[in-house]
């Protein structure tokens, strides 16, 4: 059957196909697509930060309407510009785009409708990287917002000047267990305040450990205090890694060196 695409393979930056023409042997068609520009990819990842639900649809094999404009934007999306595409066919037709190439493009369109993730393969980018970075960036944004003090909260000094009264600093009861635990942890810090302490943590984390295991190992009563004072700085310095980097406060989180 003339014009029938007998074989179609989509790979990273390249499409190879066999198309039946007038002769017995099928024509060989190759389409080369340049990799997506690194800066464009970085911007795409940043733009998709707030589109987590739509990205989930993409993983299910659907092309989300919400991402259509993002991915098809001229010069800023996944779709390649004409200068980024090169066609080649073994037929004697000297036209830049012969009917055999056109048949292959139609077949590619059908494949992309069935599996939009092939578009990422064609542009030589990793959709998993897009998902993980988008989730990570969204989490970081939420964390930054949570650390900012709300403007609706009135500070103690402001309350004092507003009502003409003197505000006492809140204090914990002497028998408060949290206060005792914090005091115990400070004592532990004083005892282990030396350069070897960091190395002890790294050595112990050669096997993945929970923050509870680490706190217990080094005599800290509050795991959250140990994580804040020691684990977080080591993670930021790249000396310790997390098994669940996207969920730093997960109860299933473990740390390893």
Rounded to the nearest angstrom, the distance between the terminal CA atoms is 61 Å
Rg from alpha-carbon coordinates: 29 Å
The fraction of residues assigned to DSSP E strands is 5-15%
What overall geometry do the principal axes of the alpha carbons give?
elongated
Uncertain spans: none
SSE ordering: EEEHHHEHHHHHHHHEE
pLDDT averaged residue by residue: 76
Structural write-up:
The chain has helices at residues 38-47, 52-59, 68-72, 99-114, 118-122, 127-147, 156-163, 177-191, 196-204, 211-217, 223-236; strands spanning 5-11, 14-19, 27-33, 85-89, 241-242, 255-256. With 257 residues, it is an alpha+beta fold. It folds into 2 domains: 5-136, no CATH class; 175-257, Orthogonal Bundle (Arc Repressor Mutant, subunit A), CATH 1.10.10. The strands form 2 sheets. Strands 1-2-3-4 form a 4-stranded antiparallel beta sheet. Strands 5-6 form a two-stranded antiparallel ribbon. Helix 10 (211-217) packs across helix 11 (223-236). The longest helix has 21 residues, at 127-147. The chain is elongated and about 80 Å long. The model has no long low-confidence stretch (mean pLDDT 76).
